[in-house]
Amino acid sequence: MEPSLMMRVSARGNRFPDSPIRKLAPLADAAIARGIHVHSLNIGQPDVPTPRPFLDALHTYDRTVIAYGRSEGEPAYRLALAGYYRAAGIELDESDLVVTIGGSEAILFALQIVAEPGDEVLCFEPFYTNYNTFAMMSGVTLRPLRTEAASGFHLPDDPAILAAITPRTKAILICSPNNPTGTVLKESELRRLAKMARDLGLFIISDEVYREFVYEGTHTSILHIEGLDDHAILVDSISKRYSACGARIGCLATRNKEVRAAAVRMAQGRLCPPVVEQAAAMAMTKLGPGIFGPMRDEYLRRRDITFEGLQRIPGLVCEKPSGAFYIMAELPIPDCEAFARWLLTDFSHDGETLMVAPGPGFYAQEEAPETPKGLNQVRLAYVLEIPKLKRAMDLLARAVDQYPA
Amino acid sequence: MEPSLMMRVSARGNRFPDSPIRKLAPLADAAIARGIHVHSLNIGQPDVPTPRPFLDALHTYDRTVIAYGRSEGEPAYRLALAGYYRAAGIELDESDLVVTIGGSEAILFALQIVAEPGDEVLCFEPFYTNYNTFAMMSGVTLRPLRTEAASGFHLPDDPAILAAITPRTKAILICSPNNPTGTVLKESELRRLAKMARDLGLFIISDEVYREFVYEGTHTSILHIEGLDDHAILVDSISKRYSACGARIGCLATRNKEVRAAAVRMAQGRLCPPVVEQAAAMAMTKLGPGIFGPMRDEYLRRRDITFEGLQRIPGLVCEKPSGAFYIMAELPIPDCEAFARWLLTDFSHDGETLMVAPGPGFYAQEEAPETPKGLNQVRLAYVLEIPKLKRAMDLLARAVDQYPA
User: Fold this and answer.
1) What is the CATH number of the domain that holds B246?
2) Which of A106, A132, A240, B391 is the most exposed place for a label (fewest CB within 10 A)?
3) 3-state secondary structure of A172
4) Where are the alpha helices (DSSP H) in A8-120?
5) Domain with A348 in it
6) How far apart are CA B148 and CA A317, in angstroms?
7) Nearest CB to A259; choose among B9, B266, B268
8) Same domain for B18 and B100?
């Protein structure tokens, strides 16, 4: 036997999904090489500059040895972070916080802590695509329950949720404001889930990395809901709120001491989060919540421009989302994977096109599905300046019109 | 039923081990509070300054948005890293490299890629304690085979290794230069493992994060061994070689394209490694291998001082290690966990004591063992300046002498 034939990647190694957000990149590169300008609405990378105090803290970092930090995060930064939450009406002690390597790691830790391999975690489709990867790494089954564009991707009713909970369900995983839909869960929705969590003994893992991006009313955190101290695990990140996605600083916050202790033990395995960026993030927390206002205003305008643009497309279905910087829209096109490729390979107008993220990547993976879920949907990230966004919406309308059905 | 009673952390969440290196920290804090100077030989945190070009690159980082980088690492940095390996006689294409968040993440990725949950990975005890955590996160069973202080912790003979390989064994995990023993595997030892890997269709995961710390001869990498392209997975990190442990930049290198592709898909799940530190690490790779000479000379002197100090302790067993900055010694003390605590709680000489890492943390975990493995061993990290090291060895000799047996 050829040795090379024997060296197979594990089955799980092969199951890890290609990023649905990034897999069109080669086609975009080819379009750019042909001289086409590509408006990138496919990826949630804000174009707003990282705030000056963050960069200043990097530039003046004064330690001479970049030594290991504390596994649970630097004490001074955790203290500052507790202050950030206090300003948002969330009382946390610094010992409730574990600094993680992005929100990503907080999700991985949370899944491993609440569930044994083979256990289930209920989540709502469409959902952040990388939950699939972390569930697979943890041997946890994500059990998805669909939400619909026509109802603004809000939660199903209680009987539908209860019907999806099995004896192996250990947690409910939510994301609000939501990636990919932009939906902000209402306090009443959180209270419905909280009651189920208490009644059935479930954890709630709440991904709130877009917490500062809410355009109507205020954000309700899972940690605002009383009586959930043992149940609630908050996943958070500075990536979006400080436009520092490449810094990889997140956190896991919980008042459940056993969960926190388990997270610290997992954190010890990977030693520490990046220490320089913790100093930079700390500089930001000192500025208080006032810094988010102008950014929120800008994204509110962008959301409105995007939503208005979409309304002009015949047959398109979407409700106006209240948060994050995404809109998930149903197009009058049965196969948006093919449409997204066609935008990059065949379509252009005055030398420009756009890049979108096709819907199926935001649904649970199925083995050889007849029709992938979400195939008539795309996710748009409104992370461009307003004139570019207007142009992108114009391009999208033209493309939908011209697309050979 | 009280809701709080129902909210249990998963069994694996409770099994994650407390860091054996860090768990004595509260006792050390208490000793310091009593005015005792504690020489820390317990943790592999080099005291050498992070090189100026690394810090300069941080201080002059000129992007205005710290955006997401590429999941597999920045192209320019991967190219530079391939150059680093070329200078070490290892031919790699930049497409063979995946930049990881420390060596830690490379180990996690490698374990998940080679093994299904329930599969086994052979490793040699004593081993780097955090392998336990990553194996647990991956559902992989580490099957340990003991090596002995008296034979310098070199590999057992072939029949012993072959006897430990089962139908579920998917890989052999090695670390050379070794943490915790300082042992550098000989080329002949690597060739023995390579033959077994080829004959039996096993991967070899080779942790070489101490590759620049070899004091006799040159380092043989797993990627130097011909005919292993499909089998070899290198785990590496800049933490030690650039004294930048807190930067969290590592890499996984393999010529097996399927392994590399799986690693990239896993990497996409967590988006990217820290981008600022990649720029800093790139600045270092431009300096060439000459920068390691002075550092290596300094550690060689430290090793000799430490080893000489140990030789003066009656009943102590250890061979002179050839690499890394650790020595694992067998003491004439049956319970070195108790001894390590006693050093911090009861012992001092002229207001000074030392902190060591007890042996058992570097062995596979067992449920309620009668006598933990490695209980008569300690790991010493020679990461202090020579006068302090000399004093620490003097303190250790006094402590062993005074310890109430």
Assistant:
1) 3.40.640.10
2) B391
3) strand
4) 11-15, 25-33, 52-59, 75-87, 102-114
5) 10-49+292-402
6) 68
7) B9
8) no
pLDDT digits (tens, 9 = 90+) for A204-235: 999 999 999 999 989 999 999 999 999 999 99
| Residues A273, B130: C-beta atoms closer than 8 Å | no
Indicate the residue of A12, A47, A105 with minimum beta-carbon distance to B112. Answer: A12
Residues in contact with A374: Cβ distance below 8 Å, sequence separation at least 6, in sequence order: A125, A126, A358, A359, A360, A361, A362, A363
Residues B66 and B149 reside in one and the same domain: yes
Return the ∠ at Cα B83 (arms to B174 and A55), rounded to 5°: 95
* pLDDT (tens digit per residue) in B88-107: 999 999 999 999 999 999 99
> Is the pTM of the predicted complex or chain greater than 0.90?
yes
**How many separate domains does chain B show?**
2
Asked whether residue A1 is domain-assigned, the answer is: no
Q: Are residues B44 and B186 in the same domain?
A: no
Bridging pattern class, strands A203-207 and A232-237: parallel
Residue B133 has its nearest CB partner, among A130, A230, A269, at A269
Distance from C-alpha of A145 to C-alpha of A123, rounded to nearest angstrom: 6
Q: Percent of chain B, pLDDT > 90? A: 89
- Together in a domain, B228 and B336: no
Contact A66 B244 (CB under 8 A): yes
Taking an 8 Å cut-off on Cβ atoms, the answer to whether B262 and A115 are in contact is: no
Q: How far is B110 from chain A (nearest CA, A)?
A: 9
Cα separation, A215 vs A323, in Å, equals 6
Q: Quick one: B30 and B56 in the same domain?
A: no
Which residues are within 8 A (CB) of B253 and not within 5 positions of it... i.e. 6 or more apart?
A: B85, B92, B96, B97, B98, B223, B233, B234, B236
Q: Which residues of A touch B138 (CB under 8 A)?
A: 137
Tokens 């049965």, residue located: A334
* Cβ-based contacts of A17 with chain B (< 8 Å): 265
- The complex's ipTM works out to 0.94
Phi-psi region of A182 (alpha: psi -120 to 50; beta: other; left: phi over 0): left
Q: Which residues of chain B make contact with A247, given a CB cutoff of 8 A?
A: 66, 274-276
- Nearest CA distance, A401 vs chain B (angstrom): 33
- Do residues A205 and A172 make contact, with C-beta atoms less than 8 angstroms apart? yes
Contact A113 B9 (CB under 8 A): yes
What contacts A11, CB < 8 A, 6 or more positions away?
B116
Domain final residue pick, B288, B303, B333: B288
Taking the CA of residue B314 and the nearest CA in chain A, the distance in Å comes to 35
Q: Which residue reads 């009382």 in tokens? A: A91
Residues B388 and B242 in one domain: no
Query: Do A59 and B61 lie within an 8 Å CB cutoff?
Result: yes
pLDDT at B31 (0 to 100):
97
| pLDDT at site B1 | 40
B144 and B77 fall within a common domain: yes
